[in-house]
Amino acid sequence: MTMAGIGTGTGDEDVAWLDRDQQRSWRAYLVGTTLLMDRLDREMREQHQLSMPEYEIMVRLSEAEGHRLRMASLADSVSHSRSRVTHTVTRMERAGLVARDACLSDGRGVEAVLTEHGLAVLAEAAPTHVAGVRRLLVDLVDDEDFEAVGRVFNTVTDALIEGHAAMDIR
What we know:
Blueprint: H1 20-48, H2 52-63, E1 68-70, H3 71-78, H4 82-94, E2 98-102, E3 110-114, H5 116-136, H6 143-160
Antiparallel strand pairs: 1-3, 2-3
Helix pairs in contact: 1-5, 2-5, 3-4
């Protein structure tokens, strides 16, 4: 299937266009993930004054040894640009959620460190996030369908993760 007005030029015979069912599934994924992430973000902001990127940074720091990560590693783990993570960490630092410190291993780099206050805020926010994921995704589908989603995205992750090892939080 070609899109209206597209796919009629020379060389298009090499394009493996999505059929109607594949197109519907692809678009359902796009709309569904956008709506899901928007809702999770809104709930986190309304209930805990945190954005999803801030929450994800706190999760990564909470799981790291000593609750600290080099800024570059943190950016890699959440798949954001270093400048975006720097701005977010600056905002979080003003709120007392994180601090910046010299890198323990070599003193040259800068690490983001989850503060005790940040850990307490994360402990309050985590149940909201998990309840939202459960209510808005997990509980809407049967176990077999949810497992199929996991299999699909494990395959996608395996194919794309090279060069992004810090993102692999499975």
